[in-house]
Amino acid sequence: MISRVRGTRDILDLKLFNFALQTIKHYVALYHFKQIETPVLEPVELFKRSLGLETDVVSKEMFVVTSSSVEQGEESIALRPEATAATIRAFLEGSIDQVPWKVFSFGPMFRYERPQKGRYRQFYQFNIECIGAASLTQDAQIIAMLDRLFLTQFNLDNYALHINFLGTSQERAHFKATLKLFLDKQTDLCATCLKRKEANILRVFDCKTPVCQNIYTKAPQLLDCLEQESQQEWKTLQEQLKLLSVSFVVNPRLVRGLDYYNKTVFEFVSPDLGAQSAFCGGGRYDSLVSQIGGKVDQPSIGAAIGFDRLLLLLEMISNKLPLPQEPALHVIIPFEGQHSLALLLADTLIKAGLQTEVLCQGSVKTMMSKAHKKGAAYCLILGEQEQQDGTVVIKDMVKGTQETVKQIQAVSVLINR
Ligand code: AMP
Question: Would you state the pLDDT for residue 126?
């Protein structure tokens, strides 16, 4: 047997998946976000330029396909690891001039990470971007929108919203230098943190080792390096969130993995997810547009919901969710020789909008038991007698009762039940 690729999964029942997706789409549309689609394949260069060469995603997790042809030479294409850079590319390539451009997209992302619960090599993200929005009021609204979505639309209650403020690039440069001085004096840092200290210093805070975590509780904080303007923005953001009754925790060590973030960053985490606890994350990126090649910068804010992790949370409370009712299933069971009549009858039922399946294998007893296992509401049995009389036997699978009706009346009998 050929097994699926490591870190990927088959989703064989999409009831919860579709419910969650529809709910999010419907909810973000209330905030006037419009759906877009971008390709799964993007130039490797796009991510190198935007996410940062030293980020884990670019340095070791990208799925890259290299193809070469005589005419075009060698081309490196990535299976997209995230959606923000591609959304900006689409914004520039589509010459969008109406800002803020409020869009969302949904689809698979690819990262070559070590698979574990909630961490896959192919995973789904629901991505939301508001491009060309300098005011942090947009940040407050997007964060509040996500919080309301999780709380009121999905009834999630065991999660926390962490927020932090990364300041401007000058403030971060100042902080990085202060942090470097502090870390240089530490003797117990793990090997990963020693590397990150040199390559991508803010990422040291992501370290899970208790010794390092303990050191970082005493480390200087970015929030202390903010200038007056940033301090005011950070204060206003928190006030606006409070105004909207959004509960949050300030996490001064939240930096998030990608280089393009500045000012606001946030993450929704749930202890119910275990080690991979973040199920949504985002932040502001004010210079990504110029990094990708735009002439004018467009300060922006975005977020990605880790859809697989959201589903893990929803599975735990699925009995409390308003999942749509499955439509009643009608199963047609023809005796030997009545298969064509069964096809015609199915055609009529489906035309009338009734979900219908024809069984045409095995004894009537076997087909009845199959229909039962499929959860049929009604079985429509067609024997020789019924064919001669132009009738059909309708068996109510819940009540166990049955009646014989004219075939031409079957639809109206079933619809009126
Ligand atoms: P990021 O694009 O890294 O900011 O991630 C946004 C969200 O996507 C995270 O909070 C996770 O919920 C989800 N996510 C990121 N990487 C993975 C992965 N390998 N498997 C499943 N979900 C992921």
Answer: 98
Q: Is 261 in the pocket of ligand 1 (CB under 6 A)?
A: no
Distance 305 CA to ligand 1 centre (A): 8
What is the pLDDT averaged over residues 162-184?
93
pLDDT tens sequence across 334-346: 999 999 999 999 9
Q: Is the pLDDT of residue 45 over 80?
A: yes
**In a shared domain, residues 269 and 338:** no
Q: Which long-range contacts (CB under 8 A, 24 or more apart) does 166-170 make?
A: 166/202, 166/222, 166/255, 166/261, 166/262, 166/263, 166/264, 166/265, 166/283, 167/222, 167/225, 167/226, 167/227, 167/230, 167/262, 167/263, 168/227, 168/230, 168/262, 168/263, 169/262, 169/287, 170/227
18, 126 Cβ separation under 8 angstroms: no
Assess if residue 357 is contained within a domain: yes
Tell how far the Cα of 306 is from the centroid of ligand 1, in angstroms.
Answer: 5
Check if the beta carbon of residue 207 is closer than 8 Å to that of residue 240: no
Q: How far apart are CA 409 and CA 17, in angstroms?
A: 37
Query: What is the CATH classification number for the domain harbouring 305?
Result: 3.30.930.10
Q: What pLDDT does 245 receive?
A: 97
Cβ of 308 closer than 6 Å to ligand 1, yes or no, is yes
The pTM assigned to this predicted structure is 0.93
What is the average pLDDT across 359-371?
95
Q: Assess whether pLDDT exceeds 90 at residue 177.
A: yes
Looking at the structure of the chain, the number of domains it has is 2
Is 219 buried (19+), middle (13-18) or exposed (0-12) by CB count in 10 A? middle
Residue at 205 is within a domain: no
pLDDT at position 55 is 82
- Domain of 42, in residue numbers: 15-167+226-320
What's the CA-to-centroid distance between 106 and ligand 1, angstroms? 13
Of ligand 1's listed atoms, the one at least distance from the Cα of 120 is: 20
Q: Is the predicted pLDDT of residue 54 greater than 80, yes or no?
A: no
Claim to verify: residue 315 and residue 333 sit in the same structural domain: no
Give the CATH number for residue 408: 3.40.50.800
Q: Is 193 inside any structural domain?
A: no
CA–centroid distance, residue 279 to ligand 1 (Å) = 7
Average pLDDT over residues 369-396: 96
Residue 88 maps to a domain: yes
Q: What is the pLDDT of residues 69-79, one digit of tens each?
A: 888 788 889 99
Atom of ligand 1 nearest to the CA of 267: 10
